[in-house]
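In practice, a research group might receive sequence data for several interacting partners and want a quick structural hypothesis before committing to experiments. The following worked case mirrors that situation: the sequences arrive first, and a predicted assembly follows.
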Amino acid sequence: MQQLIDDIAADLGRKFKQDFADDFAIEDALMIGIHTGGVWLAERLHEALGIKQPLGKLDISFYRDDFSRIGMNPQVKPSQLPTSVDDAHIILVDDVLHTGRTIRAALNEIFDYGRPATVTLAVLAERSGRELPIQADVVGKHFQLGTHEHIKLTGPDPLQLEVVEAP
Amino acid sequence: MKRANLQLDEHGRLRHLLTIEGLKRQQIIAILDAAESFISVGDQQVRKVPLLRGKTVVNLFFEASTRTLTTFELAAKRLSADVLKININTSATVKGESLLDMLRNLEAMQCDMFIVRHGDSGAAHLIAQHVAPHISVLNAGDGRHAHPTQALLDMFTIRRHKGEFAPLTVAIVGDVMHSRVARSQIHALTTLGISDLRVVAPKTLIPTQVENLGVHIYHDMKEGLRNADVVIMLRLQKERMQGALLPSEQEYFQDYGLTEEKLQVAKDDAIVMHPGPINRGVEIDSEVADGPRSVILEQVSNGIAVRMAVMSMVLGRAPIETGGEGEA
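A structural hypothesis for the assembly, expressed as tokens:
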């Protein structure tokens, strides 16, 4: 797991170098984790990259597209964005990129807080099954899974990825 | 018991909110927890979330209100619902249309929620008994009976300042007799298990048998405020008083008006609350109402988040047969 996190951090560093050269340092980016697994991962990346601004946390429950089907999430947590997102270079972090719907919801929520300069998406794992045109910029690990298989992240300590059969 | 059960659906989930009575501790806590998440919506540049997009909420206010009506309306709008306000004075009820006929018409316009304030106790229950199955009814105050969202926003405000409820001493001071707010607060505070709940008022303003609800009665204000963590002042409801329940407003202020001097006996970190509108110089001195321990305006802001929580919970009951969890 540590290796995966180090790889993601290194890839993010390379991408920011490539995109911004000396105009912008990754330490000045605003990192935002998506509850719950994305926050666990973001906490480690935040530390590994030495990002100066405090970590933002997003609960996308209010922006989901399936409210009328699954109802109100009773475990919803407050979203906390410690600094303004206006003109910020955001690194959005989630655990698993699957259908892309969570990221769609997160982007909508972020834009209700302001207008960021850029958003870069980093995920621990990416799997098949995308339903929206959303891709990650940095991926820890790729999985080809059947529709009945799921990736589960347990944590925060130790942080572990496992593939489970859906019931 | 039928009345209390009316507000739950067949799976025990909140469908209407008519009264605090009959709600379980966990249900109250769940509403407070959800409200905590809605607070951050107020920090957004766009103070809106899309939860209730396409839903229509109707404010049916048969009695004057500013704070409650406005915060319900704001809450609905921040959830992206469409909001109708029926002006009762100029509506067809004046022309002789019955209440239930009016409801049928609003249902035919595909409304999803009625928020009801009425001068008669039980009005919201009556409406809840007659609405179509997909409609939720929220009680925004009925007669002397209940004002559940006010009590919930008060609990939310107390929890934000004091944390746990169990060790608290809370004093509710003033016109308990005519106060639906006090009734709902008493039910909420006892359900949440606070250790010492006091009612402080002259004999004429205390309803009979209120001690059966688990409160301690005080007629002397300083005794009642001693070591209190929370002081809740009630508005003197002159418009609901018939006959001579009180000597005069000056004398009432002498004995039961909250001043800095009387507040001295409460705990140093005590907070002062009031559901509004306040009668300055009658039940509360301006110095206290505007002072550092007053959380009266915070109650108003918290009211938006708490009402957002209740609205999204009653309209956000998932169809039970859907077993599938949402995907990442």
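Before designing any experiment, note the following. DSSP finds twelve helices and nine strands in chain B. The first strand of chain B starts at residue 56 and ends at 61.
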